[in-house]
Design a protein that fits this description.
The protein contains 16 helices and twelve strands. The chain is of the alpha+beta class. The chain has a single domain, classed as Cytochrome p450 (Orthogonal Bundle). The longest helix is centred in the middle third of the chain and has 32 residues. Bound molecules: protoporphyrin IX containing FE.
């Protein structure tokens, strides 16, 4: 049965209603039907249709990822957060974007990822052994946070002892991308960038002094070599790209894993389906990503006068592309609010699209495939102990706490 529409006249992404976090999808459906090119009260554009988001992703010459105009008033030009979020690969345009992205593309080749498979499997099995022994776990802390951070830190070359530090810095830096910030969040975010930079500078110094301790394929080493040749990467680009990779590489995957476990437990028929047909695991990962996009919103700014769906938009228009809404657009996905692990085709936008499409998408998918396959194969009688706690964040759909038990 169709959900009744909410009246979205005056909807403000910077001041969402109290029940938004519990179910943002009702608001997205109403926006898509009533005002697919909604003007937020601050003048920004809110896109909720699949085709409109795709149009903006596809044309970086018109729709820029450069965030200097947005972040100067938000952070202040001298702020560490401004420096980070305007220097890292995701928020710059070609040709600089192309130059930087090329440098770490090698880390995500099929061959490089195949080498990670046994490590991911061993990590997953280790966490699941603990779950089997205790009979219960808090999924976020005991599982879905641990796996991606180990993997991305291995990939970059961050020593095992330092990995917990990264979590707090990442949370603080990524939280600063939320549409609205408290002074406290701003201060914590700025401190996190400063500390993270200092940490990476020390680590690089150590690596250069002890080249024998580095793996030749570590991203940190490869990027440092590119900086050393003086042409391909500046020091700031090096530091901020590493910070970005470390942040992007775990926060989002953590949420994919938590949401996947949560949605499956909320849909036990889908667990049975997966147990009956293990081959459905890859579409299952795609469905989790579609259904609960870990990054719900991406942004672009029009460099020139343009249009979307025939609506003229002047240069300077700032657009929120609500990926999570596009992923539930009935024009693209039949019965979009149904969680269907065998859904095909499933061209969701959770990894973005176009030149900035997630560089780590194959790694994230591999983590999802291994983790979900092993959990649901091993624990037939897993159940929710309490409703999941969802964080009060808009850009990232974050599970804060998820308690499960096994019979
Ligand atoms: C489920 C997990 C993940 C999700 C949902 C996700 C989502 C995204 C999205 C939506 C973008 C594009 C942003 C834009 O166009 O503005 C992006 C970019 C990026 N992601 Fe991911 N990501 C995930 C995992 C990872 C992992 C594991 C890594 C690395 C280890 C990674 C590294 C990157 C990088 C480097 C970019 C920037 C690409 C560029 O600007 O060219 N991501 N990600």
């Amino acid at each position: 049965m169709a959900t009744p529409d909410i009246d979205i006249a005056g909807f403000d992404l910077l001041n969402v209603p109290a029940d938004y976090i519990a179910d943002p999808y009702r608001y997205f459906a109403a926006l898509r039907r009533q005002a697919p090119l909604h003007r937020n009260p601050d003048g920004t554009l809110v896109l909720t249709r699949y085709a409109d988001c795709v149009a903006a992703y596809r044309d970086p010459a018109i729709w820029s990822s450069d965030k200097r105009a947005d972040f100067a008033p938000k952070f202040g030009r001298d702020a560490p957060l401004y420096e980070h979020h305007t220097t890292s690969v995701v928020f710059i345009d070609p040709p600089d974007h192309t130059r930087i992205r090329k440098l770490f593309q090698y880390a995500f080749t099929r061959k490089a990822l195949a080498a990670f498979e046994p490590r991911i499997t061993a990590l997953v099995d280790g966490y699941l052994d603990e779950f089997a022994e205790r009979g219960e776990m808090e999924v976020v802390g005991d599982f879905s946070f641990k796996l991606p951070i180990e993997v991305v830190c291995d990939m970059l070359g961050v020593p095992a002892a330092d990995r917990l530090l990264i979590r707090d810095w990442a949370l603080a830096i990524l939280t600063a991308l939320e549409p609205k910030l408290t002074p406290d969040q701003l201060a914590t975010g700025n401190a996190a960038v400063t500390e993270f930079k200092a940490y990476l500078r020390d680590l690089l110094k150590h690596r250069r002094a002890h080249p024998d301790q580095a793996q030749p394929t570590e991203v940190l080493t490869v990027l440092a070599d590119a900086e050393d040749d003086g042409q391909r990467l500046s020091e700031l680009e090096l530091l901020h790209s590493c910070i970005f990779m470390l942040n992007a590489g775990h926060e989002t995957s953590t949420n994919m894993l938590s949401h996947g476990i949560h949605e499956m437990l909320r849909h036990p028929d889908q667990i049975r389906r997966l147990r009956d047909d293990a081959a459905v695991i890859e579409p299952m990962v795609e469905e989790v990503l579609r259904f609960q996009a870990p990054i719900q919103i991406n942004n672009r700014r029009a460099l020139v006068d343009t249009e979307i769906a025939g609506v003229p938009l002047p240069a300077g228009t700032s657009a929120h592309m609500i990926v999570a809404a596009a992923n539930r657009d009935p024009a693209q996905f039949p019965d979009p609010d149904r969680f269907d692990i065998a859904r095909r085709p499933n061209r969701h936008l959770s990894f973005g699209l176009g030149v900035h499409i997630c560089a780590g998408n194959a790694l994230a998918r591999l983590e999802g495939v291994i983790a979900f396959a092993r959990i649901f194969d091993r624990f037939a009688g897993m159940e929710l102990v309490a409703p999941a706690k969802i964080a009060n964040r808009l850009r990232f759909r974050e599970v804060e706490e998820l308690r499960v038990a096994t019979r």
